[in-house]
Amino acid sequence: MQATEKAQLKIRDKEVELPVLVGTEGQVGIDITKLKQQAGCTTYDIGFANTASCISNITYVDGINGVLRYRGFNIEDLVEHCSFIEVAYLLVHGVLPTAAELKKFSRYLNQHSMIHENMHHFFNGFPADSHPMAILASMVTSLSSFYPSLTHKDPTFDITGARLISKVRTIAAFSFKKSQGEPVVYPRHDLSFCANFLNMMFSSPVNPYEIRPEVVRILNKLLILHVDHGQNCSTTAVRLIGSARANLYASISAGICALWGPLHGGANQAVIEMLKRIKNDQRNIKKYVDMAKDKNSPFRLPGFGHAVYKNYDPRARICRKMCDELFGSLQTSDPLLDIARELEHIALNDDYFIERHLYPNVDFYTGILYRAMGIPTNMLTVMFTIGRLPGWIAQWKESTEEESAKIFRPRQIYNGPTRLDFIPIDQRKKA
Ligand code: CMC
Question: pTM here?
Fold first, then answer.
């Protein structure tokens, strides 16, 4: 990317000119890569909240206007017209697939959907109440022992990408079956990606699962909503580990661990847990809203607020609508949905949330939708992971493809003690 403008920075007795980069959507970034040499200083930006760590062609997020696009396409259009697999292809390859390309990609997904039989033993080693995200992260790392680790230049990258997308889905369903003490259900070549997942989750030798097209449709949409979101915590983890030239599996495993956190993808589990608590607490919604506002309490409303969106998260808007669609077609209801809607209404009319631009984020309604499909609460972040995988793969590929790619190495402003004289052990005093 060529800089066409310059920014002036004056610090102490030095005046330096810094290149200004302008993205295709008009985002302006000051290039400070040479600042250390030019002015002998660094920049300070806790949590990199206002720092671009890369130039990326993948996902555009406009947090002020609530816009999300993958490779230029609006999320609303992709959700309406595409399957998850089509969007996965778009992310990894940069373009929407032709019918022939999609067929080939689906074939790869089918061919690589099984996991090595030796890996089945690993499941048995985990305690019965293990969190599925712990199992998933470990299993993904262990894939590198069974399948060759690779670089993006490997001609089989297409296969490896498909292999990972397909196998993570299988591992997720297997870990659920193991947690239930039930035999695993193998993937079937005649089923689509999402139908296959539901079948592996809920079918059993004594009780075949009825695959309902309306559930498959909603699952497709949900996974598309999760696919990518720019340089968030987990994606940055994937790029960071990849920057050390670690293999794809190791990098993705780091992303899984980051996503697990309740401030990130783990928020969908936290939302359901909170809604259950409210239900069991005489439905006292106001108590939880007040607790979230109380600066003496560490409690925050899970599923509310976003580092980038200062407007309604477009993914949450789509999910809210999908609740009507799914519950209508299944002809069921969920008391947690009623609580969630009332909670949203109270929060959006409360000055605390209005002043801070806190709206529901993607995690607010997704858990309720997954619950309606029968997905247990501790599997919710696993669902997010299955959806996020193509995004991580695309980001890893983009970051390692750059010839000038550098290992991530942020600086710090050291604020600890200056040089101290060493104290022998017998002269040290208790602090
Ligand atoms: N409930 C109550 N207060 C909140 C919340 C919330 N959910 N989120 C932010 N605030 C307050 C915060 O206390 C602060 O108040 P003040 O200015 O008085 O100190 C103000 O709003 C700004 O908060 P911040 O921490 O500077 O905001 P952030 O942009 O750094 O944090 C966030 C973003 C997502 C971590 C935060 O909003 C949060 O903790 N939300 C709940 C967890 C959650 O839903 N996470 C999922 C995020 S979206 C999906 C994903 O990332 O995977």
Answer: 0.95
